[in-house]
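QUALITY CONTROL LOG
STEP: pairwise intake check
CHECKER ROLE: data steward
CRITERIA: each record must contain a sequence immediately followed by its structure tokens, with no blank fields

ENTRY 1 OF 2
RESULT FIELD BELOW
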Amino acid sequence: MFVALSVVGLAVIFHKPLLQMLGSTAMDGQGISISLDSNQPVEVSVKHNPMRCRSSEPVTVLGSTPLRKVSGAHLQDTLVLENKQLGIYREIEVPFGEPNEHKTLPPVEFKSGTVRLALKPKNILGIEIYRDGQTLGTYQPGLSLELVEGKHHLVLQGTALLEPVPVDVEVKGRDITNMPVDLTPYLRNARQ
């Protein structure tokens, strides 16, 4: 009885390390080198798989594209491609392979699309459009914003508004997205 309770007690105390050990394979934590090109400059980092990689750091920065035989990634990690100025963020899973293998990944293309905001009321003036703190332009009817495909969190600001107005838009490459935005609830004059 004492032995059985001791085994159960040890299993409770050490269940996480035991599960990690039982779930791991010889491929876990095996380093590889990466080569990668993209049509837009992006910073490439690696999010390490905490269950598989056993890296001491959760993220490792590899550098900017183009990458040529850069080490620091492991099998089953995730590559993060990011360019905050262009609003680019994409994750790519590191493909399966052999330990110490060199992986040349297919080139990554970031296509552009167009966003046209249609603000209501139509006569509103002086509204600035921001993304991540940088100005994309001042609104005027028919204004087209060329953005890289993906999700973008825009913010509209202006003296006519009580507060900044967030606008989330999904941009599709080589497509036009018309985005109506009703600013009436945010107008200074509307609440007086």
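ENTRY 2 OF 2
RESULT FIELD BELOW
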Amino acid sequence: MAHRPFDPKHPAPPGDGRSTAILTLRIDGQDVGARSGDTILAVARENEIHIPTLCQLEGLSSIGACRLCLVEVTGAARLVPACVTAVRQDMAVTTRSERLQAYRRKLLELFFSERNHVCAVCVSNGHCELQTLAETLGMTHVRYDYLYPPDAIDASHHRFSVDHNRCILCLRCVRACEEIEGAHTWDVMGRGIDCRVITDLNQPWGESESCTGCGKCVQVCPTGALTEKGRAVAEMVKNKEFLPYLRVMRRREF
């Protein structure tokens, strides 16, 4: 039996419940087509319309955690996250406005202030998605007091280390470990300012019995929270494009 051509933009397999109905909508005044079940973010990316995001990554499930992809939808009472909002026929979406830009800058300031994100002394300076977004969106300073929680660095693993001071709780590592590697080493513990990603039942990473040492969690980390020992962050060329392919291969579609 011949296999269907793989399209990394639409890695979902046949029979997943998605309709093939074609819809039309407008994004930033541009008429675009979409399939029923597609998200606003997916359609925007297909049409080269940029919507900022930190938690969303092609090949991983979307959870709407960072809220940076919030967009305006005509008729909606509130902003909606583009990564988890399905398109509708004749929907009118605005992805760029002063309101949205101000909101996104405020969100980024909160990300920076929640932990110890000081770019000038960070190991990931110049190689951080959080920093890049701040520069792109014109965030010049942080108006909120830094919380400086007493976060530790876990370097117990023989290959990798985790610095909770740099974590933004995007949960990419959790999803990559569960959905791509199938190990589910990473999880989440606590709430609010006490929320942390953990390995196994909050054991040191080096004592984890489920970790395969594949490094997928390190590859998808957008900041300097997860790093490989013995290599500078600038030397760690992260390859996140492999995720959709691995996900399809796990479904045995090739």
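INTAKE CHECK: passed for both entries
DESCRIPTIVE NOTE, ENTRY 2: Helices lie at 40-46, 98-114, 129-136, 172-181, 216-220, 242-250.
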